[in-house]
Amino acid sequence: MKPIEWLGNKLKIIDQTQLPGKIAFAELRSYTKVVAAIKGLKVRGAPAIGVAAAYGIALGARNIKTENKAKFLSQLDKILQAFAAARLTAVNLFRAIDRMKKVATAADFTTIKQALIDEAKAIHAEEEAATERLSRLGAGLIKDGFTVLTHCNTGPLATAGYGTALGVIKAAVKQSKKIEVIATETRPLLQGARLTAWELMQEKIPVTLITDSMAGYFINKGKVNCVILGADRIAANGDTANKIGSYTLAVLAKENGIPFYVAAPTSTIDLSLSSGEEIPIEERNPEEVTDIGGVRLAPKGVKAANPAFDVTPHQYITAIITEKGIVREPYLRGLKKLVGK
Ligand code: MRU
User: CB atoms < 10 A from the CB of 142, how many?
Assistant: First the structure.
């Protein structure tokens, strides 16, 4: 089952908002539909957002009708802007937009639409290869018999590839290690309860679901050997933005002396930001907090806040696992070396 598939004239995605109740596919025939799918979290997770956006841009470009390259590029720019406004924190989105823009600018006008499709396919293939490789590398850190705690959702759905944190867990199981997973439900939108639990059950990997507030209890009782999660943006000093609640888990891990690992492809590293303070944090609709599954639970009129991500300072991170290698402190040097800058 492919979470994201390019069908030549449309983009087919699994509608993640309907999981696990229903495996529903959406066929997106226009770029505006792809933008809406990203905004509405039908497709989500940092690498998957980048892949979907790249195909969405190629789809939008396909429907531009002009014989003039300058006019084409100006229409394409509107499409790029629509994607840039879809989500805020995952840098993979902006990396994909930049790559598509560069290809369009450099391409010969007669082949420009095909060049954009080829670039989207290349971005997808690179994420597939990177997530598979980082998973294999990271699996070396997970010992036989480990119970691993993870947060949010980082499997194929979130990456359009093998997975980041979940990829590492899957690769460790593939190496015949006996692994148990504790998955946090991940309020407000329950990516852990809905998607991680489902993906692990598909893989037949033992998983126990807990509420976010139970993590300290299990970690303090010595029931967790390490915490591993993905990332939406990693600043040059190693500070990492990930789903809200990640910072809490990092502090708990440090306080209780267990490793806290971040697994991400290098497309999630943003060396243009010197620290996590510069990472933009997406604020989402407060209704995601006051309601669950469309049912209002909080009193009418209550004020609610909804930052979708938080930043874990680098000193809480034991290692960052990428397809090009595993980096530890000092992150600034390690990450720069890794991305070749
Ligand atoms: O808001 P989401 O569901 O797109 O957030 C996703 C996450 O925070 C994931 O943990 C992240 O993208 C990790 S990499 C797959």
Answer: 22
Largest CA-CA distance found in the chain, in angstroms, rounded = 67
What CA–CA distance (Å, rounded) separates 152 from 158?
10
Task: Verify whether ligand 1 is closer than 6 Å to residue 318 (CB atom).
Answer: no
Do residues 60 and 74 lie in contact, with contact meaning Cβ atoms separated by under 8 Å?
A: no
Residue 239 is a catalytic residue? no
The predicted model scores a pTM of: 0.97
Q: For residue 213, how far is the Cα from the chain centroid?
A: 22
52 and 81 in contact (C-beta within 8 Å)? no
- Reference 312, options 271, 281, 266; nearest CA is 281
Closest CA to 189 of 88, 291, 90: 291
One of 232, 239, 270, 310 is an active-site residue; which one?
232
pLDDT digits (tens, 9 = 90+) for 260-284: 999 999 999 999 999 999 999 999 9
Q: Is the CB of 91 inside a 6 Å radius of any atom of ligand 1? A: no
Q: Which of 39, 162, 243, 261 to mutate to test the pocket of ligand 1 (most atoms within 8 A of CB)?
A: 243
Q: What percent of the chain has pLDDT over 90?
A: 99
Report CA(253)–ligand 1 centroid distance (Å).
20
